[in-house]
Amino acid sequence: MCNTTRVDFESSASLATILGIGPQRAELLSKLGLLTHDDLLHFVPRRYEDRRHLVPLSDAQEGQSITVRGKIHQAKAMHWGALRLEITVAPETLENRDDIVIARWYAYRPYGIKEGCEVFLFGRVNRDKKGRWVMKQPDYEIIHHDAVPAVRFPMIQESG
User: Fold this and answer.
1) What is the pLDDT of residues 75-86, one digit of tens each?
2) Among 60, 84, 115, 139, which is least packed, fewest CB within 10 Å?
3) Same domain, residue pair 15 and 53
4) Residues 98-127: pLDDT tens digits?
5) Same domain (yes/no): 30, 53
């Protein structure tokens, strides 16, 4: 017989009563209109993003949200008013300069980013003034072994 634990809750109880949410996170969730257990159970994200399909940068279009896989060839932190981290990602064997994307994060340092790592990057690509592909504030996933990108991500509106 399966050992299960029954959890009783009042559907109108505050989200702060759920273990791990607490008052601060409950306040953030309230900005999304999520106040009770019942609200959370019936919440549906506005869309899902399927990130399984890798797009070669040579096929990318300006403003398109894509997933790319590559090796970090350069990682440097800069201070221009606020912390900026910039990484250069390209395939293992670089065939032409159009296969390079520069990922930039402002006032945020992604954990585990260092030269030599392989990553998946997901974000909107645009060209900078020099004609290079750039992703600003992309989501990233460090690759361990023969990984594939996470399948789908629920997308909700900003709470802040």
Assistant:
1) 877 765 555 677
2) 115
3) no
4) 778 888 888 777 777 888 888 888 999 999
5) no
